[in-house]
Amino acid sequence: MIAGARRNHGLVRSAVGGTYEVELHQGPVIEAVLRGRLKQQQRTGDAVVVGDRVEVQIHEDGSHTIEAVSARTSELARVSPRAGRHRAKVMAANVDQVVAVFAVAHPVPRLRMLDRFLVLAEANALDAVVVANKVDLAGPDGFEPFRVYERIGYPVLFTSAATGEGVEALRDALRGRVSTLAGPSGVGKSSLLNAIDPELDLRTGVVSAAVGKGRHTTVSARLIPLSCGGYVADTPGLREVGLWGIEASDLDLYFPEFREHLDLCRFGRSCTHSHEPDCAVREAAEAGAVPAERFDSYVALLAGED
Ligand SMILES: Nc1nc2c(ncn2[C@@H]2O[C@H](COP(=O)(O)OP(=O)(O)OP(=O)(O)O)[C@@H](O)[C@H]2O)c(=O)[nH]1
Ligand SMILES: [Mg+2]
Ligand SMILES: [Zn+2]
User: Fold this and answer.
1) What digits encode the pLDDT tens for the residues 236-288?
2) What is the pLDDT of residues 212-250, one digit of tens each?
3) Atom of ligand 1 at shortest range from CA of 239
4) Is any ligand 1 atom within 6 A of the Cβ of residue 241?
């Protein structure tokens, strides 16, 4: 072999305290640090993040350095807890889709939170999949709240980690893609991942400790490889954080079922659809063309309510 270094491409699987776990192309997972210009740029924390495709230099002493980062196809961002509301912090790169997991029962689905996740997906131009888990516990009306999402065009998977129902469909939805799982505690996210991929052996049923709302905890993500191909991004903080720097005036754009009505409001794009006369979106909600629940959710999010 020629003296000096070799190069390879890789995928950043985790980033903690300046050390990066990189899965080398057709190779092992190694630890690397940043070099040169990248190190300077990393002050903001955004130069290299989980999900980045990077070029790695393999040194003779066995160490590795990240030398370059490929252009991202997408960024999952949130408002930086440090920098206040004006800077978005990139949590993960090249994520394909947001998989929003809720339970039909135990706990009762919090659809306002689901709407938040869907807004996040729309704002980041990511695909979204809705999972309604614990169908084995569903009462006669348990499926109903989720039908709204089917109606407005989101794929909805009805699953049970307990019986295995719908698990195959979920595996198909995750296969070969980088997905972010989002959802409240106890809905069965870990149980579903274990059902899809028993080798993961994730802990379940442990009620997550409420870690002081992430004030001093570093917000870092991790990519978990799935044996069916693809990765699940485990992004702490996704549950609690608000609407990542989304302008109130853009919020309506992220409700896809509003779109065809937006140009028809009397005040056009300056209509906030909350109090204005001749608002086409509100009229659509009253007429049932837009689901009333979603309209209410929009108004609540606009007002900054949880
Ligand atoms: N009946 C029923 N119980 C389920 C199902 N999926 C998960 N559970 C149970 O629900 C509880 C919570 O499941 P977890 O997989 O730990 O939930 P989680 O979403 O990962 O929760 P956090 O890690 O706290 O965010 C456990 O007791 C599971 O056994 C299901 O489909 N049906
Ligand atoms: Mg879990
Ligand atoms: Zn309007």
Assistant:
1) 545 555 565 678 899 999 999 999 999 999 999 999 999 999 999 999 999 99
2) 333 334 456 789 999 999 999 876 545 555 565 678 899
3) 25
4) no
Residue 185: which residues within 8 A CB-CB, separation 6 or more? 207, 208, 239
Report which bound ligand comes closest to the CA of 252. Answer: 3
Instruction: State the distance from the centre of ligand 3 to the C-alpha of 45, rounded, in angstroms.
Output: 38
276 near 265, Cβ under 8 Å? Answer: yes
- Cα(259) to centroid of ligand 3, in Å? 11
- Residue 2 Cα to ligand 2 midpoint, Å, equals 47
